[in-house]
Amino acid sequence: MTCKTKDEMLVAMREKMVLQLIARQHFHEARHELDHLIATRQRNKWAISAQLQQLVAQEWYSQAADTPDIHAFYKPYAQKASEMMNLNEQNETQIISGSLKKTKTGIGFVDTVFVPPFLISNIESGANVTVKAVKTFDKKKNQWGWKAVKIKENI
Question: Quick one: which of 83, 79, 117 has its CA closest to 100?
Fold first, then answer.
């Protein structure tokens, strides 16, 4: 929830997070995420599901105030997630340099390394880059591959 990516890419994650926050009685944070989620859906002219409408109509929502700094709430969790990523990175990593090839869907590849869209939103296709990649299992292909976790444009 703290990564720098487009709101449109986090819609499904925010919906799950709202339900988790409600279950843990973090109502102020849940309201923040729900408001943000609905605003993103409205901005993109996407439907607001009946479930989201029902959440807005519940008592907890009207009693909760929006959290002014949601990042302060997520900060301890982000640190733990980062530590977990670092543990994964220590297992099997590689550094690859090459030309970034972006697809029409916004994903990218450097050689055979998959690069998620949130890492390359500000980098043009064809740019010379260096990526740090971790070995991951691709469920769709049922095989191991490499996924970029950091990227740097070479100047």
Answer: 117
For residue 92, count other CB atoms closer than 10 A to its CB.
Answer: 12
- Distance (Å) of CA 1 to CA 9, 45, 119, 131: 11, 22, 15, 22
Confidence class for position 35, pLDDT limits 50, 70, 90 = very high
| 44 vs 31: CA distance, rounded Å | 20
Calpha distance 121→99 (Å, rounded): 15
Q: Enter the pTM of the model.
A: 0.54
| Maximum distance among all Cα pairs of the chain, rounded to whole angstroms | 54
pLDDT at 136: 86
Q: Which residue has the tokens 């697809």?
A: 103
